[in-house]
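Re-run with default settings, no changes from the original entry. Doing this only to confirm the output is reproducible before filing.
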Amino acid sequence: EFIVNQDGSFYFMEMNTRLQVEHPVTEMITGQDLVEWQLRVAAGEHLPLSQSELQLHGHAIEARVYAENPEKGFLPAIGTLHHMRMPQAVNFELGVTAGKPASVRIDAGVREGDTISPFYDPMIAKLIVWGEDRKTALARMSQALAQYQIVGLASNIGFLQRVVKSTAFANADLDTGLIERNQAELFPPLQACPVAAIALAAVSLVLDERKGVSSSDPWSQPGGWRLNSRLQRQLEFSDEYSETQGLAYQAKLTYCGEVWELSVAGVTVAVELADQYGPNLYLKVGERTVHGSVVRVADNFHVFFEGKQIQLQFNDPMQHADEGEGDGGRLTAPMPGKVVAVLAQAGQEVKKGEPLLIMEAMKMEHTIAAPHDGIVEEVLYNVGDQVADGVPLLAFQVAS
């Protein structure tokens, strides 16, 4: 590996006797299979071509799709891939005589239903695109990322989309300070959920309720028949933005035969299901035709809409009717991992910011610190324990 500065000088950094993670980029623009080269050299053969015999064609870009949370300092994530849909890839043909290079290539070692564990690197796949020039390759990468769907754990897909669309990246103004210089563009503030996305989640909920309902039993029909009136349902959804505002999306759904009226935040629109194919829904929302796909895991509705993933939590009033107030005095794990150090014990008085526990996951350490002055009431895990994301680690009492 070498590093090159702006005046063209280059300096040796290190040598790795293996293929680099980015080798598909070289393969896409040369039409050569470097894995085959590696095997042939290991078998005692000579390199098939010399440097002067290689020809470069077009521009290629590789994005690493990772199970990580960019908004939380790129902390790694683990979990089950409940749903994974990858962009359509063209068969990768090697060699100049094999025809035009593939425009989209995916190298993945996991599939839907697999688990991302804390014991290995959390890379899900490598997404590689090719274009006649950088502008074309960037457009194809943006389109491919918009088609990538992952449900079950956090991923960096949204962040990669923003990077690819950023002005600095488009202009190849690249160095290790890119993220720090472009915080506002790469980490924009949260926005309220679009009404169309709420409509997709609400219709998906209604369609789920219709499954398994007997057509001969009028009492189990969810169609909403009422004497001299129409059925109205109050649905409540929330997302990360609404939670920061201390609010929820109150959606009133009125059944009008095959058409619903949806009212959200004072806006009322007619919603009609035009077509459905699996999780893919085609709706007419007001005067708009809306296409999106909805994947439901428990009460979480993952809406893939206009190239973005929006996670809506359905707050079922029947399910939560008997739940009491949450325990706000527990410090939870920000990521799945292993407890490597416990720095406090039950009954210990601590100051705000004092380290209490250290976790490790995928070569990264994270310190759990006291949020306020207070007392550690209970330590719930020991050194060496594996913990899941979001589980309580310590019980903490704020000083009065």
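Residues 195-210 form the longest helix (16 residues). The two ends are 57 Å apart (CA to CA).
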